[in-house]
Amino acid sequence: MEKIFLIDSGHGGVLNGAYQTAPDKMYNFGNGVIAYEGVTNRLVKEFVLKHGVQAGLKIIDVCPSVLDIPLEVRVDFINSISRKYAALNCLLMSLHSNAGKGTGFEIFTMTGENVSDKYATLFFQRFKARFPKITLRTDYVTDNDPDKEAEFYIQRKTI
Question: Which of 22, 87, 90, 124 shows the greatest Cβ crowding within 10 Å of its Cβ?
Fold first, then answer.
């Protein structure tokens, strides 16, 4: 059975000129430029959706709104899709950017070795080949692969 890619964009976007998660999840560079995490996440999501569909992948946007949809609501929706298509056929990518002072690109999976590690490593390798100048933030120490490990709510609560 084909994989279903579930794409989540964290944090809200801009609605009627108002950033949905202000003043959190944004960074003012002081030169008139402000980075809004939710806006960046949606730009990346649109890129992934466009190119994924062009490549023939089955992709579902699990947060098709600029509103800051609560995690509980997104998790319920993700789980309903996973039940419909069988959880093992679904791969969730929750896109986040850090508007603070961090730099680079990183991938998080659940703690311990699991099937997500294989997908994360493949994605990491492809990203590195496509964007060689972007700093990659890795963790080879924990389990000998590039992804970092955490127990984020969306990871813990989705099936």
Answer: 90
Q: Based on the structure, what is the number of domains in the chain?
A: 1
Q: What's at 144, amino acid-wise? A: N
Domain of 69, CATH number, reads 3.40.630.40
Q: Are strands 4-9 and 90-95 parallel, antiparallel or unpaired?
A: parallel
SS (H, E, C) 81-149: HHHHHCHHHEEEEEECCCCCCCCCECCEECCCCCHHHHHHHHHHHHHHHHCCCCCECCCHHHHCCCCEE
DSSP bridge pairs for 108: 148
Structure tokens at 112: 């311990």
CA dist 104 to 47, 132, 153, Å?
18, 11, 23
- At residue 35, the 3 state secondary structure works out as strand
Q: Model pTM?
A: 0.88
Domain that holds residue 44: 4-157
User: Which of 114, 146, 113, 144 has the alpha carbon at shortest distance from 127?
Assistant: 146
